[in-house]
Design brief:
This protein has 289 residues and is mainly beta. The protein is 4% helix and 35% strand. The chain has one domain. It has three helices and 17 strands.
Length: 289
């Protein structure tokens, strides 16, 4: 049965928002498999890796899907507004391929209404597995988002997205980067990832890697007890389970990978190509493939 997943708890720090966890990334409203796994063995949620290398997705059965992006401000939880209370229009582009930096294959372009509930209608090519690009979300005063889905979307879905203002991320005294002793740079961007298992549950004890490897100007993070920290793998704590990423990656095209520690830390459970852009946040929920 399809279930709406909880929003990403997100990229908050004790100094900035206390220990509160606020939604940041879009979460795929996917089908969650129930245990037992496809091997017939009972597996705890977040620990089923039996589908690695076996995931098969057939062609979409429709010619168009609608992605409903529920866009709210990271801090207020309401549709973005300026300091006078006027709605801030957020533009959403549906870009046709995952590595199309210029969005030259533009499948849809929509501006958010005053309530932030933005419907993006995307045509699908005959025989395709679904929409396999990304959404580019931008608005005045907000960090640009490059919003990825780890499997092609073959039917209409609704997703939450809480967007960060530029100061929330980059303020030199109280921003998220500052809490990791980093500063925003004109050649660097951020990526946040959530690892899930074959049952589509947030997965603890997973490491993330990117290719090409990050340079010394970047910093890796994972959530620990609800806040981002310099730990070595994901935890399984409530809505922050499976969360981590990289700060200040050099701009470019990367392959991001999830590697479960229980499989020795070298077996790739999920991988996906993504774009990192300066002063932007790339987000993805990484299912096994």
């Amino acid at each position: 049965m399809a279930r709406r997943l909880l929003p990403f708890a997100g990229l908050a720090t004790v100094g900035l928002f206390g220990a509160a966890c606020t939604a940041v990334l879009g979460i795929e409203d996917t089908q969650r498999n129930s245990t037992p796994s496809d091997t017939g063995a009972e597996v705890a949620p977040g620990a089923d890796w039996s589908c690695i290398g076996k995931v098969v997705q057939g062609p979409a059965t429709v010619t168009k899907i609608t992605i409903t992006a529920i866009i709210v401000d990271f801090v207020t939880g309401k549709a973005p507004v300026d300091d006078k209370g006027a709605a801030i229009p957020m533009k959403v582009l549906a870009c046709g391929t995952k590595t199309d930096k210029a969005c030259s294959v533009k499948l849809a372009e929509v501006t958010s209404p005053t309530d932030g509930i933005t419907k993006v209608e995307i045509p699908l090519d005959a025989g395709s597995k679904g929409f396999n690009g990304y959404l580019r979300v931008t608005g005045p005063g907000y960090v640009p988002y490059l919003w990825y889905f780890s499997r092609p979307l073959a039917d209409s879905r609704s997703f939450p997205l809480a967007v960060l203002t530029v100061p929330t991320l980059e303020d030199p005294k109280a921003g998220l980067l500052q809490s990791f002793k980093l500063a925003a740079a004109d050649d660097r961007g951020q990526i946040a990832v959530q690892a899930t298992d074959c049952g589509d549950y947030p997965a603890g004890k997973v490491k993330f890697a990117v290719e090409p490897a990050p340079d010394t100007g970047a910093a890796q993070f994972y959530f620990a007890d609800g806040v981002p920290a310099s730990t070595t793998e994901t935890d399984d704590k409530g809505t922050t389970g499976g969360l981590g990423g990289f700060w200040n990656l050099k701009a470019g095209t990367y392959v991001v990978k999830s590697l479960p520690s229980v499989l020795g830390g070298s077996v790739v459970a999920g991988s996906n190509s993504v774009i990192i852009e300066p002063h932007s946040l790339t987000t993805i929920r990484l299912l096994p493939n």
